[in-house]
Amino acid sequence: GRQIFQPLHTLRSAEKELLPGFHQFEWQPALKNVSSSWDVGIINGLSGWTASVDDVPADTIARRFRYDVALVSALKDLEEDIMEGLRERGLDDSTCTSGFTVVVKESCDGMGDVSEKHGSGPAVPEKAVRFSFTIMSINIRAEGEEDAVTIFQEQKPNSELSCRPLCLMFVDESDHETLTAILGPVVAERKAMLESRLILSVGGLLRSFRFFFRGTGYDEKMVREMEGLEASGSTYVCTLCDSTRAEASQNMVLHSITRSHTENLERYEMWRTNPFSESADELRDRVKGVSAKPFMETQPTLD
């Protein structure tokens, strides 16, 4: 007497769960500005970009995964390593359901000239940029314990085997506006994830994960681009402090990190509004070479 005719959508969801790379997960609290659907594949790179149409170069071509979906997929790939790590540390996996922290290294770089030499495809910019991430380590702080225990550490953090592409875009890495338009939504998703916990089934039990992001995979050109600093020929040589070339050659030792993301934002506003009606040179000296609006916080930590 069991009914075998099921409504189509039930079969669809049953089918989906058998697909590779499909994982059910939840965020607590739910992510702000991110849709709640979790069966997300490759999406248009400008998804989530809310500014007016005029602001966005319409012929920009970019494809990406939603950031949280990509992280879930990466964690599920590491499922056996996580379980193994718990066993090696002598932890009872049935009590370890919360307190996991995941450190993610972000990388972004230009891929150079990718033009078709004599193709007749659509006209697209002839440079490409790839944004990717690597899961560097997973720790757990068991209840009642003071210290966190590392249960997974990426052995080859700089290998392309551990590096997961998140977004591919046809854009020149020096095109600040287009890069901002495409990576803006990625930044918004990352920001939302910092304030929430991921609930995901690992080893048959629901466990909760927090994420920390480190931007150590950017080269200097990209850091300058993302923080709105002048290019590498600038008088202001350092991406972390306000040293000029002359000062740096005099003093190689005493520096303090003065170029934080928020400070760069404030300086951009000052450059834009010029509140003291200064000349171009005076103004430039005041903002120490911050001339574009920084859009991605790059936390300087050693890789």
From TrEMBL:
Domain V(D)J recombination-activating protein 1 ZnC2 positions: 236-298
GO function terms (MF aspect): double-stranded DNA endonuclease activity; histone binding; protein homodimerization activity; sequence-specific DNA binding; ubiquitin protein ligase activity; zinc ion binding
Pfam families assigned: RAG1_DNA-bd, RAG1_pre-RNase_H, RAG1_RNase_H, RAG1_ZnC2
Single biological process term from Gene Ontology: B cell differentiation
Limits of the V(D)J recombination-activating protein 1 pre-RNase H domain: 26-98
Ranges of residues in domain V(D)J recombination-activating protein 1 RNase H: 102-234
Superkingdom to which the source organism belongs: Eukaryota
Segments forming domain V(D)J recombination-activating protein 1 DNA-binding: 1-25
GO cellular component: DNA recombinase complex; endodeoxyribonuclease complex; nucleus
Name used for this protein in its record: Recombination activating protein 1
